[in-house]
């Protein structure tokens, strides 16, 4: 077992009385108020009896944020994000077209990216939309950081308390982390590997990105349901690459309860939190901190290998190596399906879209997304040795079909 001080380095944290308290007990101790009034499995629409305050607890799979203050703040930011991404962004797109017309440029054909950015950069409506979007992002992380880092020892203890829970949890503090994985992707403070409680931050922060559509991992569950299976129907070993906190891996275990499921990630803090989630949910998923390009699993081992929005966050050379590694560990007839953002077709490169992609890349710390959007994953999969079924299925609406099989 790896103790939290091993991960953090000696003396990084002070021991506290809460150091061995598991999650529910920790919440009873803390600022979160009473917890829990029994396990709630209700849906978000359910009304609490008049005159009572909603207890902490959970909505189905989703454990509510630990304090009402933090929850209110995140709920506000979620609504604000929805307003920015839908209404404000639509007005900005209309204004972008006006600017193109004012400059005698076509609105129905792509223009060069640099020209689009140059034209739109100083437009007040563009600036307001970008600023509002970035502020929502900063405020989301800021609130989570304040709470979770403020209570860090307690949350580390919570993960430590379940380290003996059944399935494998393998942490490799000496893993040589590639430089490309050290960025603070989508400006998450500390990134995936630089913050020992990155799992809490990631889970609740990215949940905000889904704007209320993924409290119970609905997106990962639907994607897992749509995944193709090998032609012979055998699915007994599954590996999810870049699993983060294991939402997709757990959805795969739901769909294939008899399969041995592994979630792999470069980040120790993320798989550690994934193991905590699995223990709370009683789900039998194994977690390992390893590199997707060097998984250490035997040749031809897995029936199904997946990755869920991993590749737009790694450099293209790493994606090429990961596809080769996926080929090595997939058994003949087995399926590899990387689920990731679609490539940007030249015809879809409207000025406003180019401007937004640039803002995301530049200010939201998405160093690798533009390169992923311009690469050819089908070609890379074929080069790795896979044969492709380009007919389907689409695993996430709007995403490309990357249904790869290792030839028998
Ligand atoms: C956007 S997250 C994946 C989301 C996750 N699969 C889900 O179900 O929500 C990308 C993940 O890839 C991980 N990652 C990046 N480079 C990696 C590598 N070379 N090997 C394994 N994991 C990697 C990051 O640590 C991060 O957890």
Chain-wise SSE layout:
Layout: H1 4-8, H2 23-29, E1 58-59, E2 62-63, H3 68-102, H4 113-120, H5 124-150, H6 152-161, E3 169-170, H7 198-209, H8 218-226, E4 237-241, H9 247-255, E5 260-265, H10 268-281, E6 285-289, E7 302-308, H11 316-329, E8 330-339, H12 351-363, H13 369-374, H14 377-384, E9 387-389, E10 403-405
Helix pairs in contact: 3-5, 4-12, 5-7, 7-10, 8-9, 11-14
The structure holds S-adenosylmethionine (SAM).
The site of S-adenosylmethionine has 22 residues, from α9 and β5.
Structural description of this entry:
The relative contact order is 0.12. The longest helix has 35 residues, at 68-102. The strands form 2 sheets. This protein has an 8-stranded mixed sheet, with helices on both faces. Strands 1-2 form a two-stranded antiparallel ribbon. Residues 1-48 have low confidence and may be disordered. Helix 7 (198-209) crosses helix 10 (268-281) and helix 11 packs across helix 14. Helices cover 43% and strands 11% of the residues. The protein has a single domain, classed as Vaccinia Virus protein VP39 (Rossmann fold, 3-Layer(aba) Sandwich). The chain is built from 14 helices and 10 strands. Strand 1 and strand 2 (62-63) form a beta hairpin. It has 408 residues and is an alpha/beta fold. It binds S-adenosylmethionine. S-adenosylmethionine binds at residues 181, 192, 220, 242-244, 247-248, 264-267, 270, 291-293, 308-310, 313-314, 318. S-adenosylmethionine binds next to helix 9 and strand 5.
Number of domains: 1
Small molecules in complex = S-adenosylmethionine
| Helix coverage percent | 40-55%
CATH class designation: Alpha Beta
Please describe the biggest sheet, giving its number of strands, its sense, and whether it closes into a barrel.
8 strands, mixed
- β-strand number: 10
Shape: globular
Strand numbers in spatial order across the main sheet: 3-6-5-4-7-8-10-9
Strand content: 5-15%
- Please state the structural category: alpha/beta
């Amino acid at each position: 077992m790896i103790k939290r001080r091993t991960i953090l380095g000696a003396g990084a944290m002070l021991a506290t009385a809460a150091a061995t308290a598991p999650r529910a007990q920790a919440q009873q101790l803390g600022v979160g108020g009473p917890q829990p009034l029994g396990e709630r499995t209700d849906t978000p629409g359910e009304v609490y009896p008049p005159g009572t305050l909603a207890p902490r607890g959970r909505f189905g799979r989703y454990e509510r944020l630990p304090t009402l203050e933090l929850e209110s703040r995140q709920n506000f930011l979620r609504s604000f994000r929805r307003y920015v991404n839908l209404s404000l962004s639509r007005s900005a797109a209309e204004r972008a077209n006006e600017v193109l017309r004012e400059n005698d440029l076509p609105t129905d054909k792509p223009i060069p990216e640099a020209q689009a950015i140059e034209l739109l950069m100083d437009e007040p409506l563009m600036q307001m939309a970008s600023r509002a979007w970035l502020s929502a992002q900063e405020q989301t992380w800021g609130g989570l950081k304040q709470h979770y880092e403020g209570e860090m020892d307690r949350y580390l203890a919570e993960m430590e308390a379940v380290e003996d829970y059944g399935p494998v949890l393998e942490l490799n503090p000496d893993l040589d982390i590639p430089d490309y994985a050290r960025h603070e992707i989508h400006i998450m403070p500390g990134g995936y590997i630089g913050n020992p409680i990155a799992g809490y931050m990631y889970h609740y922060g990215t949940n905000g990105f889904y704007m209320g559509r993924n409290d119970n991992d609905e997106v990962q569950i639907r994607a897992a349901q749509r995944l193709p299976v090998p032609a012979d129907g055998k699915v007994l070993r599954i590996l999810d690459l870049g699993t983060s906190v294991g939402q997709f891996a757990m959805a795969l275990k739901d769909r294939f309860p008899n399969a041995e499921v592994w979630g792999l990630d470069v980040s120790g803090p993320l798989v550690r939190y994934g193991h905590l989630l699995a223990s709370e949910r009683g789900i039998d998923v194994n977690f390992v901190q390893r590199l997707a390009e060097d998984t250490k699993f035997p040749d031809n081992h897995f029936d199904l290998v997946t990755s869920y929005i991993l590749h737009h966050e790694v450099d293209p050379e790493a994606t090429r190596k990961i596809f080769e590694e996926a080929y090595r560990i997939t058994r003949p007839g087995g399926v590899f399906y990387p689920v990731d953002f679609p490539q940007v077709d030249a015809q879809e490169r409207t000025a406003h879209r180019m401007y937004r992609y640039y803002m995301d890349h530049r200010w939201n710390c998405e160093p690798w997304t533009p390169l992923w959007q311009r690469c050819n994953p089908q070609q890379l999969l074929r080069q790795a040795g896979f044969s492709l079924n380009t007919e389907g299925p689409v695993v996430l609406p709007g995403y490309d079909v990357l249904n790869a099989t290792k030839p028998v």
